[in-house]
Amino acid sequence: MTDHYPDKENGTKTRSSQPPRKKSPHVPFGDMRTAPWYGKDIISVRQFTSADLDYVFGVAHEMREMVERVGTFDLLKGKILASLFYEPSTRTSASFTAAMERLGGSVIPINEVTYSSVAKGESLPDTVRTLECYADVIVLRHKEVGSAAQAAKYAKKPVINAGDGTGEHPTQALLDLFTIREELEIFEGITVTMIGDLRYGRTVHSLARLLKLFNVRLNFVAPELLRLPLGIVQELAENGTPANYYEALSPELIARTDVLYVTRVQKERFENPEDYDKVKGSYVITPETLKQAKDKMIVMHPLPRVGEISMEVDDDPRAAYFRQMEYGLYVRMALLAMVLGKA
Ligand code: ASP
User: Fold this and answer.
1) Which atom, in ligand 1's list, is nearest to the CA of 203?
2) If you measure from the C-alpha of residue 335 to the centroid of ligand 1, how many angstroms do you get, rounded to a whole number?
3) Mutate which of 175, 203, 263 to test ligand 1's pocket (most atoms within 8 Å of Cβ)?
4) Which is deepest, 53, 106, 236, 265, by most CB within 10 Å?
5) Residue 235: CB atoms within 10 Å
6) 313 alpha carbon to ligand 1 midpoint, in Å?
7) How far apart are CA 108 and CA 221, in angstroms?
8) Residues near ligand 1 with C-beta < 6 Å?
9) pLDDT reported for residue 17
10) Which of these, 306, 309, 334, 329, lies nearest to 320 by C-alpha position?
11) Are 339 and 37 in contact (CB under 8 A)?
12) What's the number of domains the chain is made of?
């Protein structure tokens, strides 16, 4: 599909570097031009209002029911996803592939960019303009902040940001929020405590920005070196979101927490390995840590974990991190269906 997608300036897409092509009078069979996210990129959580979130979660909920009932169905039959990963991934790439295949579509996986023309020095704009000749939607993970926005500028087809360096990871934050909704049933008045690498952890950046839309209290626990970036601290303050900053996870803090969001220290982002050594293993959640916690609270983690949550916590019903991965499938199914005009 080329010019069927609406124009980018108004939430729509144009490509400046090419002569305008004749508009197609039709959209591909079954596409809904009126679907609110049809043809749009998903680059940042800032694009979502709370009404949008209701919409995404409503569709994700339907996806869950369909998967539980029939497993796979043909909503995206004939559609192709290009899955372009310049950084390692297990869950994000596997769940996007599973999402596409459960909806009857197919995937061009480019996970090992060493074997693609990227290794020959091809630029990101050229790579995405290549892939959109073959695919209907592009999912991109890249080490540079702003890479997804750059790819979206050049691609006419929807681009979904699957993590741009230390920037954002919007689909993870959407699935994190969906997990909270499914597990706790409310957002209003809850206390979310985020702990670990708040500086480099892109999932934290996206989730904090999304939570700002609700009446929540936020606690951030990190060693000085890994504090939340000032820009996000200011965004929260300007929004009037109650936020507190700590270096230690005290029993009192745990006792007030409804969602404990644990993150990995992002070793690959450190310029100086000695700095990593100073902060690695700063916090480890054990059954002992959870002794003071409420009965109805959850422990989340975007994963992979490298020791921040001990395996003895896994059998605690409050450990939601494995269920969180499954919710990710439904949210990614919803997002693919939405940008491809099927929901
Ligand atoms: N999987 C998440 C990410 O890609 C979290 C992590 O890697 O620690 O950002």
Assistant:
1) 9
2) 19
3) 203
4) 265
5) 17
6) 20
7) 40
8) 163, 169, 202-203, 264, 266, 302
9) 55
10) 309
11) yes
12) 2
Residue type, 336: L
DSSP string, 278-326: HHTTS--B-TTGGGGS-SS-EEE--S--SSSB-GGGTTSTTB-HHHHHH
pTM of the model: 0.91
Banded pLDDT at 268 (limits 50, 70, 90) = very high
Tens of pLDDT, residues 27-40: 666 678 789 999 99
Domain span at residue 273 reads 170-325
Check whether residue 120 and residue 216 sit in a common domain. Answer: no
* 325 CA to centre of ligand 1 in angstroms: 12
The closest residue, in CA terms, to atom 8 on ligand 1 is 264
Burial class (CB in 10 A: 0-12, 13-18, 19+), 315: exposed
Which ligand 1 atom sits nearest the alpha carbon of residue 263?
Answer: 8
CATH number of the domain encompassing residue 334: 3.40.50.1370
In this predicted structure, the answer to whether residue 8 has a pLDDT above a threshold of 70 is no
**Is residue 301 domain-shared with residue 225, that is, in the same domain?**
yes
